[in-house]
Specification:
single chain; about 425 residues; alpha/beta; Lyase, Ornithine Decarboxylase, Chain A, domain 1; TIM Barrel; 2 domains; nine-stranded mixed beta sheet; eight-stranded parallel β-barrel; 21 strands; about 30% helix; binds ligand LLP
Length: about 425
């Protein structure tokens, strides 16, 4: 569900024609719908309203502080994976007590920052990290609230790059060693065990792997309690998929029902870490056609957005629908590759895609780009990163300015001993 729709053959975000944004802000440009963001957050969070829970939005999916702040205003917490994400979340006004910190490689600087802010819990991914956090907490005279991220060895049946809960993945502590790790944690003076965590992967389109993982978590929680280890929080990560093409993921209500059923009787506070399901379909990447080009075997539509703006097609061969901003019912479709200006053959947004005939200046919307779009963008080929716009009803605001050429070199220095 989203608020991008045609009115007399022109694509709108809520009540704003995308052509107006292209004209005033330029392209490429990310456009998000406030109404979709609010709706998705409410539906997801509301699906868990029968139990005590925190919905901690996965900042990596979309890190713009305006969007974090919007979720914060609806009561969201945040799931972070770096000091930078903690900084963003705090700047966006999110209380530290609603922030959980995951990730396999937390540095000392990041641990100290999170400890001094007083976050809700660290999701710990290894024995060494447990020792390191204990040491840092001792150094700062604090106690670190922790959960151990366990790896339940469940196949989420998603793209291998975004599956995280299988034995071969780098994430979490193997289920076999989980009890031992909790016993170690119990003996550490500056560690306070508060929970259990797991996250098995992203873009899951079936509830079965979640239910399987939760079954294992539940057994673990019961055993820990038998051993007098108090577990207050059970964090089941994120991962619920969305429709990019023809996928039929479970509705958040269905997901919540399955999860809560698998958890029934466990008296605890649940933590959810959704990312994509909240923001994915709430954003598009708006781009303009620069050239069209025919080769003996192909037809290319060359646009002003590229893999540096949206890397998902290049990296995961991901499908993003492409909608013309102006539909012309008299125009025929042709099969094209939509590509960017970057000097790599892997720089494409769509391949072998039927699309109405395009010409210089036409606008296209790359759909479902709200998650892992801007947040994974880069400056490759010295391309300034795109602007981000948030639409609300008839109005819109720029929530991130387009970078300039000057911004590109701002942090660079030419040593004096290079004489030109
Ligand atoms: N929690 C943890 C610990 C995670 O690692 C992730 C995502 C999430 C929550 C949120 O997952 P979501 O609800 O968004 O599926 N760049 C890839 C996705 C990478 C996901 C990484 N972890 C993509 O564009 O598909």
């Amino acid at each position: 569900m989203h608020h991008f729709h045609y009115v007399s053959h022109t694509l709108f975000c809520e009540e704003v024609p995308l052509s107006k944004i292209a004209e005033e802000v330029g392209t490429p440009c990310y456009v998000y719908s406030h109404a979709t963001l609010v709706h998705h957050f409410r539906v997801f969070d509301g699906a868990f309203s029968s139990v005590e829970h925190h919905t901690c939005f996965a900042v990596k999916a979309n890190s713009n502080i305006a969007i974090l702040s919007l979720f914060g205003s609806m009561g969201a917490g945040m799931d972070i994976v770096s000091g930078g994400e903690l900084y963003r979340a705090r700047k966006a006004g999110i209380p530290a007590k609603k922030i959980v910190y995951s990730g396999v490689g937390k540095s000392i600087q990041e641990i100290d920052y999170a400890l001094s802010e007083g976050i809700l819990m660290f999701n710990i991914e290894s024995f060494e990290e447990l020792e390191r956090i204990n040491e840092r907490a001792r150094e700062l005279g604090l106690r670190a609230p922790i959960a151990l991220r366990v790896n339940p060895d469940v196949d989420p049946k998603t793209h291998p790059y975004i599956s995280t809960g299988m034995k071969k993945n780098k994430f979490g502590i193997d289920m076999k060693f989980a009890l031992e790790a909790y016993e170690v944690a119990k003996k550490l003076d500056y560690i306070e065990i508060v929970g259990v965590d797991c996250h098995i992967g992203s873009q899951l389109t079936d509830v079965a792997p979640f239910v399987e993982a939760i079954g294992k978590i539940r057994e673990l929680v019961n055993e820990l309690r038998r051993r007098n280890i108090d577990i207050r929080y059970v964090d089941i990560g994120g991962g619920l998929g969305i429709t990019y093409d023809r996928e039929e993921p479970p509705h958040p209500m269905e997901y919540a029902e399955a999860v809560l059923n698998a958890m029934r009787g466990l008296n605890c506070c649940f933590i959810l870490e959704p990312g994509r399901v909240i923001v994915g379909n709430a954003g598009i990447l708006l781009t303009k056609v620069l050239y069209t080009k025919k080769t003996p075997t192909k037809k290319f539509v060359i646009v002003d957005a590229a893999m540096n703006d949206l890397i998902r097609p290049s990296l995961y061969n991901a499908f993003h629908a492409i909608w013309p901003v102006h539909l012309d019912p008299s125009k025929e479709e042709e099969v094209v590759d939509v590509v960017g200006p970057i000097c790599e053959s892997g720089d494409f947004l769509a391949r072998e895609r039927p699309l109405q005939i395009q010409a210089y200046g036409d606008l296209l919307a790359v759909m479902s780009a709200g998650a892992y779009g801007f947040s994974m963008s880069s400056n490759y080929n010295s391309r300034p990163r795109a602007a981000e716009v948030l639409v609300r009803g008839r109005d819109y605001e720029i929530i991130r300015e387009r970078e300039s050429w000057k911004d590109l070199i701002q942090l660079e220095r030419i040593p004096k001993w290079i004489n030109l």
